[in-house]
Amino acid sequence: MDESKAAPGPVDPSVSAAAAAIRTERSEHWAPWIAEIAAGDESALARLYDATSTLVYSLALRVVGNPADAEEVAADVYSQVWRSAGSYDPARSSVLGWLVMMTRSRAIDRVRARTERARRETGLESPFEFRDPRPAPEDLYSFGQRGRMVRGALSALPQEQRELIELSFFQGLSHAEVAERKTLPLGTVKTRIRLGITKLRDLLASVEESGHGS
Fold first, then answer.
1. Which of 96, 103, 135, 139 is the most buried if burial means most Cβ atoms within 10 Å?
2. DSSP assignment, residue 85?
3. Angular region, 183: left φ>0, alpha ψ -120 to 50, beta rest
4. What is the pLDDT of residues 119-140, one digit of tens each?
5. What is the value of pTM for the model shown?
6. Where do the domains of the chain lie, and which CATH numbers do they carry?
7. What is the dihedral sign for C-alpha 108, 110, 111, 117?
């Protein structure tokens, strides 16, 4: 199989989530498509993409927290399907389970890479970091809630700290790129992000404590 063939582009996030739920009911029909993909059939990959892309995107978005990263995760998943369809074993999992596993793995890898870079640059643990290296699919909802908590806490930060953290974490820019974008000294960017992350972690801890106490 020619691995140089391009997989479909990013997922359109405007597609109704309800359509994904309907499509998942047809998952028993997807296994033959995987065999066809393994044989190099691009049309089978397109059919699988049409049937599952909204679900894959939605799962990715719950983990990574922003549309741009979710689209890249989804594109990575279908590229992986194209490359590794021959290794799919229907005795081990359904096609849906296989896709969920790949989506979860790719999404967590992306978050880890993003947060590890931020940790190296700031010397602080990131509030976006996952503690469980292999979360179950049902934990994706909790990750989504965590993302909403983070966005709520961000709104309480001073504007200059919030903007720099959003550029660094949600847009994936390095500190040097943030400094260039905002025309600020690199040291200023690092200091503001460090202070912002410290305050953000305190805010999140306060929210979580109040939640447990309610």
1. 103
2. G
3. left
4. 665 555 555 544 443 444 444 4
5. 0.49
6. 17-113 (1.10.1740.10), 127-213 (1.10.10.10)
7. positive
